[in-house]
Automatic annotation (TrEMBL):
Lineage, top ranks: Bacteria, Bacillati, Actinomycetota, Actinomycetes, Micrococcales
Residues of the Core-binding (CB) domain: 71-154
Protein name in UniProt: Site-specific integrase
Positions of the Tyr recombinase domain: 175-400
Gene3D superfamilies: 1.10.150.130, Intergrase catalytic core
Cross-referenced InterPro entries: CB, DNA_brk_join_enz, Integrase-like_cat_sf, Integrase_catalytic, Integrase_recombinase_N, Integrase_SAM-like_N, Tyrosine_recombinase_XerCD
Organism listed in the record: Phycicoccus flavus
Keywords attached to this entry: DNA integration, DNA recombination, DNA-binding
Molecular function terms, GO-annotated: DNA binding
Length: 412
C-alpha cells in the first residue's frame, strides 16, 4: 500500500473563541473527489489529543466511517423513523418507537454527533431515566430501539461501530404474571351472562386471544361444525393524520391535532395483520365454547335486524357494536372492568385474562409446544414467566416419578 503524504494525514489543532479545543482531521476523499476533514471538539487539549489519535488510528486502519455532514443523533433518528423503518415496521411499532425516542432520547442526546456517540453516553441516559422514575422495562425498550437504529446506521456506513452493542442497560426485572384462579375464572364467566357478548369473555379466558384479535374475529374465521377458530387479523386504533395542505405556520385547517382536521385521514379503528407470524393460528375450541358461539350467532342476527339500514354489512364481526362496527378497545376495557367488579373478584387487567388461559393450560399438563401454538408465542422463554404454573408441574413430575420408582417397593 503506498505511503500517504503529510497532506493526507495532518491534523490541525486550535483553541476556539468558545473556549473549547478544536481539531480538523484529514480523512479520505469524498464522492466529489475532494479531501474532507473531520471536526473534533473537546473541553481540554489533552482530551482533544486523545480523541484525534483515536480518529487517526481508525482512519489509518480503514475502520472510521465518516460522512460530510456528520449528522446528529436526532437527525439520524428522524431519518430512520420517517424514511427507513416505515418500509418494514407496523404502524403500532412505529408509533411506539417515535414516542420513546422523542420523549427519552432526543431531548438528552439529540445534538450528539453520531461519530462521537459513546457507550457511556447511553449508560448515563439510562441512569437518568431511572432517576426520573422510568421503569426498567421502559429503559430496556429504549435501549433496544437505539440498538436497532444504530445497527442500521452501521449498515449504511453512517457509523463505524454501534455503541449500543457495548452499553449495558439495567438488568431486567423478573416479572411474574398474576392470573385469576380457577374459582375466580368461573365467577367471571358466570357474571358474563349479563354482558352484551358473554362469549367475548369466554374466548379471552379459555383461548387467551389478545384483545385486538378477539375484536377482529369474523364469522368466516369460525368453523362451528368442526369446532375450530382461526386468528388472522387484529383491531387497532390509529392516530388520525392531517389531510389538509401544510403551510409554514402549520396545517392549513388551523388545528394542531389530525383528529380535528375536517380532511383527516388514516386513523380510527382499523383491521391490521396480527402481531407476529405465530399469531396467525388455528385453535380447536372446547365443546361448551362452540355452543356459546352458536348462541352468539343468533344474538348477532338479532342485532342486525334491530339496526336495519344502519347496519355495517362489510365486516360480519363475531363481536360487533349495535350497528355492526368494530368495538373500540377502550370501551372493551371498560366493560371488562365492570365485569370484574360484578363478579366480585380482585381487579386485574384484561390482558391478565390471556395470562389466565396460559396458566390453566399449563396446569392441565398440556404440552408446552401446544400451549405456544394456542397462545401464539414465538419464544420458549415466554413460558418462563409462568413460574407458578411451571413449579406446580415440577411438583407433579416429582410425585409421578416417586410413584413409578418407589410405590411398588413400598408395597412389597
Amino acid at each position: 500500500m503506498p505511503r500517504k503524504s503529510a497532506e493526507e494525514t495532518t491534523s490541525s489543532v486550535y483553541r476556539g473563541a468558545d473556549g473549547f479545543w478544536h481539531a480538523r482531521v484529514t480523512m479520505e476523499r469524498g464522492h466529489d473527489g475532494e479531501r474532507v476533514r473531520k471536526h473534533v471538539r473537546r473541553r481540554t487539549k489533552s482530551e482533544l489529543r486523545d480523541a484525534v489519535r483515536e480518529v487517526e488510528r481508525a482512519r489509518d486502519a480503514g475502520m472510521f466511517v465518516w460522512t460530510r455532514d456528520d449528522i446528529t443523533l436526532e437527525d439520524w433518528l428522524e431519518h430512520w423513523l420517517e424514511t427507513v423503518l416505515p418500509m418494514t415496521a407496523r404502524w403500532k411499532t412505529l408509533s411506539t418507537y417515535r414516542s420513546q425516542m422523542r420523549v427519552h432520547v432526543i431531548p438528552v442526546l439529540g445534538r450528539q454527533r453520531l461519530s462521537e456517540l459513546r457507550p457511556e453516553n447511553l449508560e448515563e441516559l439510562y441512569r437518568a431515566m431511572r432517576r426520573q422514575g422510568s421503569s426498567t422495562h421502559v429503559v430496556r425498550a429504549v435501549h433496544r430501539v437505539l440498538r436497532s437504529s444504530l445497527n442500521e446506521a452501521v449498515r449504511r456506513r453512517r457509523l463505524a461501530h454501534n455503541p449500543a452493542l457495548v452499553a449495558r442497560p439495567p438488568r431486567a426485572d423478573q416479572v411474574e404474571v398474576d392470573p385469576l384462579s380457577v374459582e375466580e375464572t368461573r365467577r367471571v364467566l358466570a357474571a358474563a351472562g349479563s354482558t352484551r357478548h358473554p362469549v367475548r369473555w369466554s374466548i379471552a379466558l379459555a383461548l387467551g386471544l389478545r384483545q385486538g384479535e378477539a375484536l377482529a374475529l369474523m364469522w368466516s374465521d369460525v368453523d362451528l361444525r368442526n369446532g375450530n377458530l382461526r386468528v388472522r387479523r387484529s383491531c387497532q386504533r390509529h392516530t388520525w393524520n392531517h389531510g389538509c395542505e401544510p403551510t409554514a405556520d402549520g396545517p392549513s385547517c388551523g388545528h394542531r391535532r389530525g383528529g380535528q382536521c375536517e380532511q383527516r385521514e388514516g386513523g380510527g379503528l382499523l383491521l391490521v395483520e396480527p402481531k407476529t407470524k405465530a399469531s396467525v393460528r388455528s385453535i380447536v375450541m372446547p365443546p361448551p365454547l362452540v355452543e356459546e358461539l352458536r348462541s352468539q350467532r343468533s344474538r348477532v342476527n338479532q342485532l342486525r335486524l334491530s339496526a336495519g339500514e344502519d347496519w355495517e354489512p362489510d365486516l360480519d364481526l363475531v363481536f360487533p357494536t349495535p350497528t355492526g362496527g368494530l368495538i373500540d378497545p377502550a370501551r372493551d376495557n371498560a366493560e371488562w372492568g365492570r365485569l370484574i367488579e360484578a363478579a366480585g373478584v380482585r381487579r386485574v387487567r384484561l390482558h391478565d385474562a390471556r395470562h389466565t388461559a396460559a396458566t390453566l393450560l399449563l396446569l392441565q399438563s398440556v404440552d408446552i409446544r401446544t400451549v405456544m401454538s394456542i397462545m401464539g408465542w414465538t419464544e420458549m422463554a415466554t413460558a418462563q414467566r409462568y413460574t407458578h404454573a411451571v413449579d406446580e408441574l415440577r411438583r407433579r413430575a416429582a410425585m409421578q416419578m416417586g410413584d413409578l420408582l418407589w410405590s411398588a417397593t413400598d408395597s412389597g
